[in-house]
Amino acid sequence: MGHRRSGSNRRGLDVDARRAIMQGAPTPSKGRNTMSSNRAIVVDLDAPGRLVIRPVPEPAPERGEAVVRVRAISLNRGEVRRSGMAAAGWRPGWDLAGTVERAAADGSGPRAGARVVGMLNEGAWAERVAVPTDRLAELPDKVTFSQAATFPVAGLTALYALTKGGLLLGRRVLVTGATGGVGDFAVQLARLAGAHVTASARRADQVPTLRELGAHEVAVGEEIPATPKYDLVIESVGGRTLGTALRALQRGGTCVALGVSASPEVTFDAREFFVVGRTTLYGFYLFTELGNVPASVGLRRLADLVAAGQLAPHVSLERPWGEIAQVAQDLIARRFPGKAVLTLD
Ligand SMILES: NC(=O)c1ccc[n+]([C@@H]2O[C@H](COP(=O)([O-])OP(=O)(O)OC[C@H]3O[C@@H](n4cnc5c(N)ncnc54)[C@H](OP(=O)(O)O)[C@@H]3O)[C@@H](O)[C@H]2O)c1
After folding, report:
1. Hey, which of 151, 182, 235 would you mutate to test ligand 1's pocket, going by the most ligand atoms within 8 Å of its Cβ?
2. CB contact set of 15 (below 8 Å; sequence gap of 6+)
3. pTM for the whole thing?
4. Do 130 and 66 contact (CB within 8 A), yes or no?
5. Is residue 2 over pLDDT 80?
């Protein structure tokens, strides 16, 4: 997925192009290689923070894609890390919110003018992008673009990971990395689903915030105690945290492993894990999960919960997108908690 922007100009030559040919001037093309008023965040190896805003071609939507005028984007650790290693010219960006400028040609998805949230596999950090309509959801008026920009990767990951636990009413759920972007959504959503929620955090000073968020209990430290036991663990830290979380599963419990904020290398006691019986370790990757439930479904659900005042995204930093390089560096250095959102005019 992402940007499939090859091919010829399907609309044929316009008046300017015909005039240019008649006058012997170079033909202005409207295809992929045309520079335009569109701009995007692009990797530049020589720029501080490696990210700059540059002119890029206008999006050339497929029939099932709408063109969105982007008003807010949010940053995720994975894409920022990749920007630090990617080749010059790569366009990062998963999360976006904005207004539909041109509805999809096949009639699917939101109408022109609709306020939407959406996601791409890359390249979402641009003024105008083409987004498949199964990756878009319309926003209720009450939900701001900044709030919505936090939904796609962080919100959908939390929402879809929690579904691996089945019915959560009265079940015990542990969320590790609970102060992070995914963890924040996961604690709130698990609580909303009727679970008894334990949040795991690194430091004692994070306890009050996590309680306010809805956690019934907070476990402090890198290791998860062997008791109490959990029906579902949403695990994003890896290392000792995952290794010890696996022994804290209830019979039939599931640990959803989705991140490695501390370390990808994990040692665990396999016997402690299997003698409990029917325990599962589930590898979760959002882009794969979207093959089961389209992003549009979860994005709309998150938007409705926010509009109803039941879910509150944690936007801790909101800046103009011109500050991308600094905000990306601050994110990697963990200089702020929660989600960073950048706004476009
Ligand atoms: N599989 C998928 O599809 C998928 C989707 C989204 C995210 N992810 C991954 O999931 C993880 C969490 O994402 P996120 O957006 O929530 O990240 P985030 O905002 O950076 O949050 C990271 C969380 O982990 C905690 N943490 C504990 N030990 C840590 C350590 N040694 N180093 C850094 N953080 C540590 C942080 O605690 P403090 O607040 O104390 O720093 C914070 O609560 C990341 O690894 C991300 O790449 C995977």
Report:
1. 182
2. none
3. 0.90
4. yes
5. no
